[in-house]
Write a structure and sequence with these properties.
The protein is α/β, with parallel strands linked by helices and 427 residues long. Helices cover 37% and strands 13% of the residues. Strands 2-8-7-6-5-3-4 form a seven-stranded mixed sheet, sandwiched between helices. It has a four-stranded antiparallel sheet with strand order 9-10-13-12. It is globular, with a radius of gyration of 22 Å. The two termini are 32 Å apart. The chain binds pyridoxal-5'-phosphate.
């Protein structure tokens, strides 16, 4: 798409088949929210649904609501809905715990599989630029199991898959750069090298098409509060290929993963399939809010589904890139996100040598919410301005105004004001 005018952007919004979906979200008036990749917008249906759960299901139904309101089935029911977005079948996904905790479960199961099938394989390979919690969890597990975590750059991944590798653990769409792996190609290469593959779909589920079955993946986890709009700290999800699901206990063998939790037997007997990946009692109110968020994504099925969402996401990110290059040239911004569609998630990341944090703060003060991700301070990774473009509720005109605000902040150097340069706890 070539750089266009405000009028062109408005015309694109009028023609957008996904435009009605914006009404499903309570986007605050006057705000251009480009951070749905960190915390998705509140769906309009959520407050009333959660209030009903509090007042009626908890307030009146009390303990009976585990059966009567279907609380007991929520992890599997929400999991089945998420399965539709990631190429998994019904009964293969549960919504539960956090991404970090679920990663611990599946990495542990993957290492157990290898310990039995190929005990000489004792290395987990991941990308140095992976989201840190993923690396920390892997590091902790390696310590416990006497394994090694090998961190490489994306370009050297193929060479890193030696005969000692048990597991390749990757995040499908990189949180810092928006670069997307070829899931099927990477999975096939890892399998050819004898390794299992764990995919983190935190920046993929609900944002880009994912087909775990077609890719032949082994394990996957993902996040509920980003593109699935489940609310702060929403439960995450976990998928295990059915061929692996029954082979091992996951290590957090709590009673909700037991075959018969209400038999209260002293010994653990894992439930069949993905159910054993539950641990303790679920946060029911949060699961109910997550279901509303997933339903809002699934509403796109009536408007062209994931292919339409993907096309709009690419159109929005193309437009954002083209406008930044046309209107913010000469201000030291470098595009970090791949231009190639097949390698791009649903965000645009711009690097800048100085002022990145303050520029983001100055934009937020103008009602354009993106976020800042710190570089390594050594020149390897620069500081990044990150803009998530959620096709469910972001329009073309939003992109136009966001880039105009960015241009003004850069041209006026408004970001140099002291109030924009004070770091807060959460960036
Ligand atoms: C957001 C994100 C997480 C978050 O993990 P939590 O356990 O929910 O805090 C983990 N991994 C990746 C790749 C993420 O993008």
């Amino acid at each position: 798409m070539s750089p266009c005018t405000l009028a062109d952007c408005r015309a694109l919004d009028v023609r957008d088949p996904l435009r009605p979906l914006r009404e499903l979200f309570a986007v605050p008036e006057g705000l251009i929210y480009l951070d749905g990749n960190s915390l998705g917008v509140l769906p309009r249906a959520t407050p009333a649904r959660v209030a009903r759960a509090v007042e009626h299901e908890w307030g009146r139904g009390l303990i009976g609501s585990w059966n009567d309101a279907g609380w007991v089935d929520l992890p599997a029911r929400v999991g089945d809905k998420i399965a539709r977005l990631i190429g998994a079948r019904p009964g293969e996904v549960v919504a539960t715990d956090s991404t970090s905790v679920n990663l611990f479960k599946v990495l542990s199961a993957a290492l157990s599989l290898c310990a039995q099938d190929a005990p000489e394989r004792r290395v987990i390979v991941s990308e140095r630029s992976n989201f840190p919690t993923d690396l920390y969890i892997a590091e902790a597990l390696c310590k416990e199991r006497g394994c090694t975590l090998r961190l490489v750059d994306a370009e050297t991944l193929p060479q890193a898959l030696g005969p000692d590798v048990a597991v390749l653990m990757l995040t499908h769409v990189n949180y810092r750069t928006g670069a997307m792996h070829d899931m099927a190609g990477v999975t096939a290469a890892a399998h050819a090298a004898g390794a299992l593959v764990v995919w983190d779909l935190a920046h993929s589920a609900g944002a880009v098409p994912v087909d775990l079955q077609a890719a032949g993946a082994d394990f996957a986890v993902g996040c509920g509060y980003k593109y699935l709009n489940g609310g702060p700290g929403a439960p995450a999800f976990v998928w295990v290929h059915p061929a692996h699901a029954d082979r091992f206990w996951q290590p957090l063998a709590g009673w909700w993963g037991h075959a018969t939790p209400f038999a209260f037997t002293p010994d653990y007997r894992p439930a069949p399939g993905i159910s054993r990946y539950l641990c303790g009692t679920q946060p029911i109110l949060s699961l109910i809010a997550l279901e509303c968020g997933v339903d809002a994504v699934l509403a796109a099925q009536d408007h062209g589904g994931m292919p339409a969402l993907r096309q709009k996401s690419l159109d929005l990110t193309d437009l954002f890139i083209a406008l930044v290059e046309a209107r913010c040239a000469g201000h030291g911004l470098t595009l970090v996100t791949p231009r190639e569609h097949a390698r791009r998630g649903s965000q645009v990341c711009l690097a800048r040598g100085d002022g990145a944090y303050a520029i983001v703060q100055a934009l937020i003060a103008r009602g354009v919410v993106g976020d800042f991700r710190a570089g390594d301070g050594a020149g390897g990774h620069p500081d990044i301005l990150r803009f998530g473009l959620t096709p469910l509720y972001i329009g073309y005109e939003d992109v136009w105004h966001a880039v105009e605000h960015l241009r003004e902040v850069l041209e006026t150097e408004a970001w140099r004001q002291p109030e924009f340069n004070r770091k807060q706890a959460v960036t």
